Structures are given as C-alpha cells and as structure tokens.
Amino acid sequence: METLVAPLDHPAIARVLPHRHPFLLVDRITELEPGRRAVGVKNVTGEERYLVGTAGGARVLSPAILMEAVAQVGAVLVRARPENRGRLVFFLGIERARFRRPVVVGDVVVLEAVVRRLGPRMGTFAGAARVAGRIAAEGVMSFALGPGGEADHRQG
Prior knowledge:
Layout: H1 10-16, E1 28-33, E2 37-43, E3 51-53, E4 59-61, H2 63-79, E5 88-99, E6 108-118, E7 122-131, E8 134-146
Antiparallel strand pairs: 1-2, 2-6, 3-4, 5-8, 6-7, 7-8
C-alpha cells in the first residue's frame, strides 16, 4: 500500500476515494499530515452540473456540494493513516455549519479539514472552505469508519 504524500493530483485522489466524476470534487491535495490535517483545492468551472442560478443571474456552487468537497478532503485525511486505508468513511452529520459567502464560477476554493477526534470506529473534524483567504463555509463533521473501501485499487 503506497504512502500518501502531498501533493496528490486528481488521479491519485481517485485511488484513495471511491468517488468518480462528476462526484469527485477535489482537484488537488496540497498539504497532508495523516491523522491531523489536510488541505485541498477545488477549481469552480462553468461546466459543473451542480451549479445553481441565483435571482441576479450568477451561477453559484450549492452549499451542500461545497460541504461535500470539504468532506472529501476529510476522507482523504482519515484514509491517509495506514490502519484506515482499507476502510470506508461514512459521514454521519454536520454541526455548526455556516455559509458565509457564495462561491461562484472562476473561484479557487481552498478546502481544509483538521481532525478533532479520530478513534478506531468514529471521529470528527473541523472543515472550512475559503476563497481568497475568506471563509465561504465551515462546520464540524462527524464520521464512522466501516469495512470495505477498494478505492485504493481502482483506476480513475
């Protein structure tokens, strides 16, 4: 099993997570401290099917998709630990979610996940999405670890 070292590009992320296009939302992992912290990047393009229109005509990334992108960075963080590589990460909930500003086409979103608690079966991490250094969304996510997770052997 390969050791995960940042940076990870899209194909490398696809070997860690079971998600595939169009649901693999993270373009790069730029920083990775297994069991502690991970930072990823999502480039918001006009080609994404999950953009929503606003009354003013702007196309924005939905808050749910934005938090899913943060969750995917968190899943890479959790699965970076050798003992978790063969396990799936199941998200249980989001607490204290705040959406501070819209994310629009052309934005580069920096996604960060920081472990608060990581046990053998469950854990939590704080997540944030930033555009130009300003928080667009944040929350605390809880997850459970289960068996399975053959993503390490799939080709993206």
